[in-house]
Amino acid sequence: MKIYVPLDSAAKALGADDVADAIRREAAARGLDVQIVRNGSRGMVWLEPLVEIATPEGRIGYGPVSVEDVPALLDGKMASLGPVDEIPWFARQTRLTFARCGLIDPLDLDEYAAHGGLAGLRRAISMDRAGIVQEVLDSGLRGRGGAGFPTGIKWKTVMDAAAPQKYIVCNADEGDSGTFADRMIIEGDPFTLIEGMTIAGLGVGATRGYVYLRSEYPDAIAILTQAVKIARQRGMLGHDVLGSGQAFDMEVRTGAGAYVCGEETSLLNSLEGKRGTVRAKPPLPALEGFLGRPTIVNNVISLATVPVIFEKGAKHYADFGLGRSRGTVTLQIAGNVKRGGLFETAFGVSLGEVVNDIGGGTATGRPVKAVQVGGPLGAYMPVSRFDAPLGYEEMDQNGGLIGHAGLVVFDDSVDMLQMARFAMEFCAVESCGKCTPCRIGAVRGVETIDRIAEGAPGAIDLLTDLCETMKDGSLCALGGFTPFPVMSAVTHFPDDFATHREAAE
Amino acid sequence: MHANAPAPAEDEIRAIVAPMTSLEGPLLPMLHELQRIYGFVPEAAVPVLADVLNLGRAEVHGVISFYHDFRDHPTGRHVLKICRAEACQSMGANALAESTLKKLGIGWHDTTSNGAVTVEPVYCLGMCACAPAAMIDGRVVGRVDQARMQRLLDEAGA
Ligand SMILES: Cc1cc2nc3c(=O)[nH]c(=O)nc-3n(C[C@H](O)[C@H](O)[C@H](O)COP(=O)(O)O)c2cc1C
Ligand code: SF4
Ligand code: FES
Fold first, then answer.
1. Contact check, Cβ <8 Å, B124/A290
2. Nearest to A298 by CA among A468, A126, A150, A124
3. Does ipTM top 0.85?
């Protein structure tokens, strides 16, 4: 009997290791011949640990499974969720980037290849550089790290740059609250990222790559390091990638707990062993990046999406989506929500559908009050904006941003003044210190919000002015976008700022 | 490493970082390795790193102090990180952190008087769909309530 127990760190955080041990123990006691496969997560964090038993009818899911459930599970007495790929939450997705995540043993390269892995890389090997870059352009893929910049244009800049050495740098700093897509794919299907980086290397003529992975993700670091080793042993990486005669190799580097190091130029400084301060642009990293060489910096999901684009063709990918947002968005539904997890779907789904329909509303059962979309620099969206479709331009028109596509749901017990204060506090703690409006402004922001709470007249106007100064005078989006969560809280939830005033009067 | 252990010798530090000198951008990997071995980055490492990498001491100091991860002093036997970011806040992380610190009678970054646990804030552990989250010595725990936190503290001997 083959039983799958996820090794994803969210599953482990909910007891998956203990469940795997219990299955081993109870199976031995029953004299059952059980093979336990540690797969990635299917993304349904609300069902983790989600155990699957392979049957002739497909993989049958059980979850959440606790240690106490294991005897019943093995005796066939536990209620099942049915075939996992028929669970409605899972079945209604369009899984392209995450197609293999949760399906396979993340470190089994043969299984990876058996499920479509390496097909994209083989196709890329048969193409020339311009053809590879054109394929990415045609796919319409835009950067999933936050800014939504067209990936193909960035690649073309690096391809066209002449240099003795070019680099592919993967941004796996994933510091935004409410996001875990990078972590989940690295833990669940690391070869996808390696394959995507390799295709990038072939496309622009870069032979070396780095993954800058945040230190808060020790499990992801361990799995990716292991996967790189295996890829090298098996000839997927090295001086002769899959026998192509072309070279590409990569290393995993660990971040050191600075949020700002997710910003690409700060990341490059950090990778070079410097303080993670933000660099002024130009020069673009594409021309003068790591060690001054032409460098692609792409988010994990951007790079991990490249293999499926090459496997199925740019058109297949571009056929999904809305407007200028092509393909799928890997939503991360988080916070106070009933059914949270990783949900991959074509761009265009509305915010309300994600929160209420897919997410099932709040975990506490209270009414939804606000959803922060796009991490700590993203706006708090009120329920009145739930019609907003999730697309880059569409969210912008609604005063928000998609960012890395994390959604954090809050129920009506949240005090939006406190959330605004936290946004300023976070900016103050994480500022790289280069610009005064960010470094000092954020500290003033906290003080000003405290004065609003005390009922000081005119403090809201002060805060508004301060936010304008931060927007205009900041080099990067940490200082420049912190006003989004702050001002969206003030604008959409005036009562939370007014009640304090009235209470003090 | 205990607070009263002898300061590591220069030779020892040199031997630890030597294998990494050929890396592109070797300083962060070196600092991580030193912290892995000693539990913090010993002061004695600064001149060695400056020498090996041909940097000023102030520059090395500047790098160490920039990053939240690097410490210049030992921690307790266990390090408990409690997530303070938005998704965890939406599920009661503030109250959880407050009560935990109160119970232990310490503040953020402090160590319990018996040396068992150091508590540090962290901004997101990627557990945002099973919040609130904490991490003890690199092991993540999700949906942490008061009871689960108490078990973690008991296990750590706090
Ligand atoms: C403060 C700040 C933090 C950021 N954090 C991340 C991050 O954790 N991961 C990421 O991919 N991009 C992050 N970005 C965006 C990067 O600067 C950059 O746009 C991205 O890595 C480019 O890759 P992409 O085009 O594939 O999205 C951050 C930007 C800022 C200003
Ligand atoms: S806005 Fe803040 S984080 Fe960004 S460069 Fe300026 S000081 Fe650094
Ligand atoms: S916000 Fe706490 S784990 Fe992400």
1. no
2. A150
3. yes
